[in-house]
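This part of the workshop introduces the protein records we will be handling. A record pairs a protein's sequence with a compact description of its fold. Comparing a sequence with its tokens is the quickest way to learn the format. To make this concrete, we reproduce a full record directly below:
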Amino acid sequence: MVQYPHTRCDATFAALSDATRRGVVEALMRQDASISDLAQRFDMTLTGMKKHVGVLEQAGLVRTVKQGRVRTCTLGPSRLEDEMAWMDAYHRMWVARFAALDAVIADLKRMENGDGKRRDEI
């Protein structure tokens, strides 16, 4: 199985478990935005958005820069390689398991169509 830094992946998955935070990341993929702009876009308080941005920032998904009274958010340095490797390992496992199940089902269908008897009846 793929080795990954647990705490970083935990922080990433926890940050992305919330629909608002996923929306913030998607919005920042299009363009940088201030916390005020994000709060308005998601119809929430400034304090609530600051908390969401803080969680994303701790996970490395968002970076903030303060200029005067405005805190601007950009995408962070996290490239999600470790998280993608972890998910890919599980994806490959499930693809293999479903392929094996498909093969068993195909064998059972061939046996039933061949002589009308299943293997356990022979």
